[in-house]
């Protein structure tokens, strides 16, 4: 009877350690806290693995009601290579997938937070944002149980953003029409005031001419009466 060869325990341990190292290299997490003042931009770099899912959760607190918080994620140092960009990030978590960079295991991604002022805001107040960021990538970012819900949530979020864009455009058009109506009303008031001023100037001119004519006749009559009293005749 042939005996089954026994695998050395050292090889099993080495294999398990190698699997753990590979899994640890492709998955990870990090967390940090930021303080952002209106008008500033806070950025940081994070080394992420190639072609990996990344999930970013936020906890945002602010004293501003006229603006929202935005995020912009770029690959490397190129500001035009945008991986993700979004507004109002305090509502939902951000998910994106890193690019494939076969020449290296990890690549730097730049994450920037900045304030986004709403188009319908008339007052811009100084605000301070307190941001707690939690990042997970690789296996830690997987959420298979909520994938369908996340997909539906993403579609709903896109529809909400589209509706918000359309509503903002409608509000801006309403503001333009309101300003045009105000300009037309102001033009009408200025035209009426100009006509009234012209009428007053015309009446004043007529009265001035009449006074001058009457004064001339009165002077002539007075001189004639004076010469007559002195027995001076003139033609």
From TrEMBL:
- Tell me where the transmembrane regions lie: 197-218
- Highest taxon listed in the record's lineage: Eukaryota
Extract the signal peptide range. Answer: 1-31
Instruction: Please provide the record's keywords in A-Z order.
Output: Coiled coil, Membrane, Signal, Transmembrane, Transmembrane helix
- The main location is membrane
- InterPro entries in the record: Emp24-like (IPR015720), GOLD_dom (IPR009038)
Q: Record keywords: Membrane included? A: yes
Residue ranges annotated as coiled coil are: 159-200
Residues forming the GOLD domain are 31-228
- What's one GO-annotated cellular component? membrane
The UniProt entry lists membrane topology as: Single-pass type I membrane protein
According to its UniProt record, where is this protein located?
Membrane
**Family in the record:** Belongs to the EMP24/GP25L family.
Protein name per Swiss-Prot or TrEMBL? Endoplasmic reticulum vesicle protein 25
> What organism is this sequence from?
Porphyridium purpureum (Red alga)
């Amino acid at each position: 009877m042939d005996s089954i060869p026994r695998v050395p325990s050292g090889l099993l341990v080495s294999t398990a350690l190698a699997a753990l190292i590979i899994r640890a290299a492709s998955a990870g997490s990090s967390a940090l806290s930021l303080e952002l003042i209106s008008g500033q931009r806070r950025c940081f770099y994070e080394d992420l693995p190639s072609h990996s899912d990344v999930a970013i959760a936020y906890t945002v607190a602010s004293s501003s009601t006229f603006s929202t918080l935005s995020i912009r994620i770029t690959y490397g140092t190129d500001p035009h290579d945008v991986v993700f960009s979004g507004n109002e990030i305090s509502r939902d978590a951000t998910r994106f997938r890193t690019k494939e960079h076969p020449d290296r295991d990890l690549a730097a991604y730049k994450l920037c937070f900045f304030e986004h002022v709403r188009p319908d805001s008339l007052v811009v107040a100084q605000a301070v944002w307190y941001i707690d960021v939690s990042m997970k990538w690789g296996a830690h970012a997987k959420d298979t149980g909520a994938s369908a819900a996340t997909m539906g949530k993403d579609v709903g979020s896109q529809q909400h953003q589209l509706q918000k864009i359309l509503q903002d455009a409608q509000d801006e058009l309403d503001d333009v029409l309101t300003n045009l109506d105000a300009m037309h009303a102001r033009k009408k008031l200025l035209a009426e005031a100009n006509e009234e001023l012209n009428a007053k100037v015309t009446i004043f001119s007529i009265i001035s001419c009449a006074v001058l004519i009457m004064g001339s006749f009165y002077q002539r009559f007075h001189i004639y009466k004076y010469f007559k009293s002195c027995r001076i005749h003139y033609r």
